[in-house]
Write a structure and sequence with these properties.
The chain is α/β, with parallel strands linked by helices. The protein contains 12 helices and 8 strands. Bound molecules: guanosine-5'-triphosphate and magnesium ion.
Length: 321
């Protein structure tokens, strides 16, 4: 609609952006469908009309804190008689939303540590896309010249080992695996040894999906973390929490409980090509300030990109083409 950011995209990125835009369609519809009727074109929105927008932001999972911040900005604009059209509203939302998400746009940089390898421990509830994200991450980091090794740390779910091995084959990368049912921490310890021997740059470790409210499983994650420190307390470690973007407000309790158990350092948002609930990113950003490192918009090896606040907001608001 507005054409921001357009010049910086090539056709590949453009395809990615379109999928993101389609994935966020439902959220966008919830925010804007039928909203044009409340604008008169020459008068700014009144407090009652602003309430309608507030309700829509809350419905779109933005959470109370983000919604309040946005509504404060909108109220200021309305006072200056600037909120007279839907386009003016969208411009104001765009500015506010980008401002909110920019602090969590911190790319994952595996070159930060002195010691090697850089370890990425991938955690999250069942079925959110952990193993698929690992396949995509392996591709992403190999492409930029890193030696990547994978650890089949999900020893629990049937066929989980075969699944990560198949991503290893696709990426032509080694996968360290033990038997089904064996100790997950031991697999990861073994992978770290192997990575040292091979001089690998990055180890990406899978873990079994677990419910965030099951104490025993969360204890296992703590044990994995301790094992990594035992191997070398100075290893740079990213604890990457994978969240399904279709989740809505439950994402907040997932983030909270995983963060309590393991100290999450980054988030990967998956399935943004499906029927995503984009508003929850704002709620997450306000509540935890944990960087969103990557977003996934599909099941293929190349369907992962670093998170970009402006792109995300433009896809959500349709302020791009
Ligand atoms: N559309 C879409 N599907 C995805 C995406 N990421 C993962 N999936 C699909 O989601 C399903 C679950 O993905 P997995 O990677 O196995 O998820 P997981 O978190 O490892 O699952 P568990 O190990 O069982 O906990 C698979 O069918 C994936 O293909 C994505 O970004 N978009
Ligand atoms: Mg898995």
């Amino acid at each position: 609609m507005f054409g921001f950011n357009k010049q910086k995209r090539d056709s590949d990125t453009d395809g990615f952006f379109r999928r993101l835009q389609r994935g966020l369609k439902k959220t966008r519809a919830g925010l804007f469908d039928g909203l044009a009727d409340i604008f008169s074109g020459n008068k700014a929105l009144d407090p009652e009309q602003l309430e309608e927008i507030e309700a829509r932001l809350l419905m779109a999972d933005l959470g109370m804190e983000s919604t309040t911040l946005i509504m404060d900005a909108l109220a200021k604009q309305a006072k200056r008689n600037r909120l007279r059209t839907l386009d003016e509203l969208i411009l104001c939302l765009r500015e506010q939303m980008i401002e909110m998400l920019t602090p969590i746009q911190i790319p994952l940089d595996p070159a930060v540590g002195v010691d090697k390898p850089f370890v990425i421990l991938v955690i999250g509830v069942n079925g959110v896309g952990k193993t698929t994200t690992i396949g995509k991450l392996a591709h992403y980091f190999s492409k930029t010249g890193n030696n990547v090794l994978l650890a089949a740390g999900d020893t629990f779910r049937a066929a989980a080992i075969e699944q990560i091995q198949s991503w290893g084959e696709k990426n032509k990368l080694p996968v360290i695996a033990h038997k089904h049912g064996s100790d997950s921490a031991a697999v990861i310890f073994d992978a770290l040894h192997s990575a040292s021997a091979r001089n690998s740059d990055i180890v990406i470790a899978d873990t079994a999906g677990r419910l965030h409210n099951k104490d025993m499983l969360m204890e296992e994650l703590k044990k994995i973390r301790r094992t990594i420190s035992k191997f070398n307390a100075d290893l740079p470690l990213e604890v990457l929490l994978v969240i399904d973007a279709g989740t809505g407000q439950n994402a907040l309790s997932q983030a909270q409980l995983f963060h309590q158990a393991t100290g999450v350092t980054g988030i990967a948002l998956t399935k943004l090509d499906g029927t995503a609930r984009g508003g929850m990113v704002f709620a997450l950003a306000q509540a935890f300030k944990i960087p969103v490192r990557f977003i996934g918009v599909g099941e293929q090896i190349d369907d992962l990109r670093p998170f970009d606040a402006a792109d995300f907001v433009d896809a959500l608001l349709d302020t791009q083409s």
